[in-house]
Write a structure and sequence with these properties.
2 domains, 5 helices, mainly alpha, about 90 residues, about 55% helix
Length: about 90
């Protein structure tokens, strides 16, 4: 059984501290809304290869651990496009 928590609050009310505390207690990964918004913006600013390379650069610890179907959805790609990109770029994500 997994536990998912969505903590909300107004700006400057300790939401980042709560994220850090939950991560330290083992309820991670926890994400702050600023991270989520940055990802949304990235989807519109970068092309497909750029999104994949940015993900690999920012999250090297996740390489090979995320199912390809989930990674493709996160990057707003089809699984087939992700496979072609990985082949073309010679990467293992």
């Amino acid at each position: 059984m997994s536990l998912e928590v969505i903590g909300t609050g107004f700006g400057r009310t300790g939401t980042d501290s709560m994220r850090e505390a939950l991560t330290m207690l083992g309820f991670g990964p926890c994400h702050h809304m600023s991270e989520v918004m940055a990802h949304s913006i990235t989807l519109h600013l970068l092309d497909a290869p750029g999104r994949l390379l940015r993900f690999q650069r920012k999250h090297p610890e996740l390489t090979g651990r995320i199912p390809k179907k989930e990674l493709a959805a996160y990057l707003n790609l089809t699984p087939e496009t992700l496979s072609r990109l990985k082949q073309r770029l010679g990467t293992e994500a």
